[in-house]
Predict the 3D structure of the following.
Amino acid sequence: MQLLAICYLFEGLSESQMQHLTGIAKETSIQKDQWIFQEGQEAKQFFVIKKGAVELLTKVDDKLELPIAMLRDPGSCFGTSSLSAPYVYSLSARCTEQGSLLAIEKTELEKLMQEECDLGYIIMTNWAAHLLDRLKETRQELKIHFKTLFKSMHS
Amino acid sequence: MQLLAICYLFEGLSESQMQHLTGIAKETSIQKDQWIFQEGQEAKQFFVIKKGAVELLTKVDDKLELPIAMLRDPGSCFGTSSLSAPYVYSLSARCTEQGSLLAIEKTELEKLMQEECDLGYIIMTNWAAHLLDRLKETRQELKIHFKTLFKSMHS
């Protein structure tokens, strides 16, 4: 299962740390159109793609679904809301091409990170860097909207 | 310096961990209208407010500054870009009321977190939870803009 080593969250882990992580990952198959989880549900699991494709999306309202990302590269991960309080999925995930995932239970990962805090420190450092990157991207998009609005008000 | 204990990043640290952290914090005074740092600069320090007020802002373009937050509560922190790669301030910080700050050097904090990974794990866990919260908030704002745009296109 060298697959986990591709995931950005686990960059920098030693070989023995990777083995402990692999020990808590379970393989599960997914079918086309299957909802893996829905926005708002308790985030109990974290997933890494082994095969197939998964779409992440959010509901703007009842009529409008906004696609956020399409994941198909092995090693791509999702369900990261299970890594941080309040442990609620902020997006929905739907399988668009059948395949298989590695699933890691939130409770088991948390236990491992607490027991081996050097492993926990590395994972959380990677996770925070990723979140900061996403936050900057999203703020940039918001800035563009704001700029457009400002221009339309003053033109 | 029980001040650091108020900051959300250090929630859950033991008394001895707090002492080690206090050991690397240095008090510095700030004057009205002083720029503490500017957006885009290398993020070398992290700050906690002791007294006075600091405004965080971003430049939309040369003519337009967008205020993001006004910090005046003791224990409020900023300059958190120094906690995660690529270590670049994403906002500017300007003092709006003279006072004093506790400054922690990025390199010293990183050294402490690596040496005491249980402390590092707690701080990074708090930081990631905060970032996830901010990201959800910003995505929510973007959703509202998108909804408004969608309605205006279909009305």
User: Anything to note?
Assistant: The two ends of chain A are 58 Å apart (CA to CA). The mean pLDDT of chain A is 92. Chain A touches chain B through 36 residues (CB under 8 Å).
